[in-house]
Amino acid sequence: MKRINSITGIVFIALGVFIIAYSFTFKATLVKDHYTGPEFFPRLIALGMILLSLILIATSRTSGQKTDSKETVRFFSKGMKTPLMTMGMLVVYVSVMLEALGFALSSILLFLALLRLLEVKRTRFYVLAPIFVIVVTALFRYVFLVQLPTGIIGF
Amino acid sequence: MFQLLLNGLALVFSWNVFPLVFLGVAGGIIIGALPGLTATMGVAILLPFTFTMDSIPALATLVGIYVGAIYGGSISAILLKTPGTPASAATVFDGHELVKQGEATKALSMSAIASFVGGIISTIMLITISPLLASFALKFSAPEYFMLAVFGLTIIASISAKNIIKGFLAGFLGLFVATVGMDPITSAARFTFGSINFLNGLSIIPVLIGLFALAEAFVQLETFDGTHSEKVVVKGTSYVSKKELLQTLPTMIKSAFMGTFIGSIPGAGADIAAFVSYNEAKRSSKHPEKFGTGCLEGIAAPEAGNNGVTGGALVPLLSLGVPGDAVAAILLGAFIMQGIAPGPMMFIRDADLVYSIFSALLLGNVFMLLLGLFGIRFFSRIVDIPKVLIIPMIIILSMVGSYAINNSIFDVGVTIGFGVIGYVLLKAGIPQSPIVLALILGPMAECNLRKSLLMYEGSISFLYTRPITIVFILLSLFSLYTSLKKKKKVSTDLDGE
Questions:
Q1: pLDDT at A70
Q2: Quick one: pLDDT at residue A67?
Q3: Last residue of a domain, one of A50, A71, A92
Q4: Are residues A46 and A14 in the same domain?
Q5: pTM (2 decimals)?
Q6: Shortest Cα distance, chain B CAs vs residue A62, angstroms
Q7: For the packed helices B91-100 and B55-80, what is the interaxial angle rounded to 10 degrees?
Q8: Are residues A142 and A90 in the same domain?
């Protein structure tokens, strides 16, 4: 946990520095706030973030290993491969498939890909996947009247 | 007030609300019963189903889901020894012991009745307290609202008792996310990276779905080992008897009041209420040694306690516009979606809506009792649904839900982005609830701080010249002090082990 805390602290310091740096690019509008500006609150947040990160780094270095070992969480585990691959699938789903293939078809493909990823062998589940997606699509489209992306197949 | 409540009941009993509350409770029980799915996740993924509804049916449905999900957690806690939601973790001790003794029906019926008692008492408390608190809050101006938001933000410390600094860092992250978009005073674009999509800020719902549903699904995928739990068989046909009910009634009533009180404190949720109620019931019992061996009071106390929170958590939400816990934060997101700002003015402008919510809570608890008692066998089948199907279903529902809010693929991207962020934060031991609280309280804090500075011509004297502001400062300091003390105690206990 010590190492994770230090890395967390560094990431948040970087974020704080980014917020302050980016706040200099805010363009003034015709509305004037004489005491504070649009950059006031983000900078306040960034300063708080940096200060707390420094405390986190300092305390994680000074705290004893005994307590730390009880909190230890394995950040990188063998099982991480599955969520990482799912994230990859979702990026493809949102950036390519959703608009081109429509919600129903891309979601069916996503569901089937997830079943494959989880090494499911039961055929029944592969049949259930499109049924579930079609029911959800129909529910949102015809009951809740939400215009879901239709893509090339028009559904 | 009584007339308003009757109006609310009439609205909730109309044909377009009544069945929705029922479906909400049933849906909530199903989600709650699935191990690993929290009430927060349940409300987050079922929320999109209410987008196109009018405000009263939408909020009544969500209230039903909330009530159902908190109760539903006890089903898997009792049958599988795996709490469906963290709020039911304390129910495992005695609930599963009774199942081992062949008394599953008795345990499940006890849980349903205790949840009902907890829910009803907390709703009555909500109906009594919140209008009083709201009328007091009408005196608030910008400085008071700023300090109220700060007080809400200090609650972050109590949510994250394990590591307060990490909790606050999560809070600051939420505050930062809340600043994306146009500045509320000058309309200057902030952190938009030149994209029009960021100009209105990030919609709360896609962020919530990402943090609570998708991130949780990623965690479940990581721990998924392909094994299926054993098929659950509900043994025993006898329900809890009249005598047993009377014996446990005092425990239920006491736990319900404790749950309501704990729920009304921003930051303390159903899981804390359940454990505090269980410990108190054990401490004050004449037979504490029976706890953990299948004692009915051991089910009655945590279940009345955790459902007591449902009404309690709505007290600060409805009367002050400050969410009491993560579920209340999602409900606040739903209010915003409907164009309603919770807070004292709502009791004047939308009294019908407020009293409809109260009525929906009452009705939801009745449905929960009926479904809990008569649907035991059906709901116990729910826990058999394999995770391998549930996880992809959650992912698909998260996608469609985030799209449906604005018909925007960009929002789906936001959900995926926050799903990834939430997953990384969970792995780093950073809690997600503070992000949501800060995301909601951030604009309130910023806007009112800057308004206060304008009112006082740049001076911060509003912090020490207004009595209510001073009270909030003291409350914030007290909240921080108790959280730090609690954290110190936890550290000492760990060292002592």
A1: 46
A2: 47
A3: A71
A4: yes
A5: 0.81
A6: 14
A7: 60
A8: yes
